[in-house]
Amino acid sequence: MKVFRRLLAITGVTTFTLPAIALMSWSVPTWAQDDACYMVNSSGQRVNLGKLCQRPSVQPSNSGAPAGVFRARIKRRDGGTPVIDVKFNGNQTYEMLVDTGATGTLVTKSMAQSLNLPIVGAGRFTLADGRTITMPVGLLNSLSVSGATIRNVNVAIAGDYAEGLLGSDFLSNYDVKIKRDVIEFYPR
């Protein structure tokens, strides 16, 4: 699982095309993480952010957040990557890795089946190691994190060997601040 996730991580650019639907690919910087106090640059190297991470911890709730800011509790970390709850189509919640380097969101085959996702095409994805793979692409009605919501989202569907990834198709709609215990989403 981790090998596949790492192939989709920061150093690669992930793109996919669909019939009649054009999606853009772009690079998104990695944000600092308070507990590990580092970021990964475009070359895949860890950069120590030491002094920048000297902040008090925030309680994981929306209470106390400025109006319009959404807070998601970090449930755990997988190799330093935050894992949060994400709600699909308004009614089913799954744990997802917050992958600031992934162009799009990726769900597993089991998740797609449980959500009854309609397949709308196939995508070609370039992995960090240069390989290109093809995966089915499904259409979600909505994708929500603690009230922050986007609608009509195309998602890649991987086998059950992968982990679900929340990518920049969601994250780019918000200014994202990753803290020790929470992730804050500030609408743009």
Radius of gyration: 16 Å
Q: Could you say which structural class the secondary elements and strand pairing correspond to?
A: mainly beta
Provide the β-strand percentage band: 35-45%
Mean pLDDT: 76
Question: What is the first-to-last residue Cα distance?
Answer: 33 Å
Overview of this protein structure:
With 188 residues, the chain is mainly beta. It has a single domain (2-57, 68-187), classed as Cathepsin D, subunit A, domain 1 (Beta Barrel). It has 3 helices and 13 strands. The strands form 3 sheets. Strands 4, 5, 6, 7, 8, 9, 10 and 11 form an 8-stranded mixed β-sheet that branches. A 3-stranded antiparallel β-sheet has the order 3-13-12, with no helix packed on it. A two-stranded antiparallel ribbon has the order 1-2. The longest helix has 7 residues, at 109-115. The protein is globular and about 40 Å long.
State the gist of this model.
With 188 residues, the chain is mainly beta.
Q: What is this structure's SSE topology?
A:
Blueprint: H1 2-7, E1 38-40, E2 46-48, E3 70-73, E4 76-78, E5 81-88, E6 92-98, E7 106-108, H2 109-115, E8 119-126, E9 132-145, E10 148-158, E11 165-166, H3 168-171, E12 174-178, E13 182-187
Parallel strand pairs: 6-11, 7-10
Antiparallel strand pairs: 1-2, 3-13, 4-5, 5-6, 5-9, 8-9, 9-10, 12-13
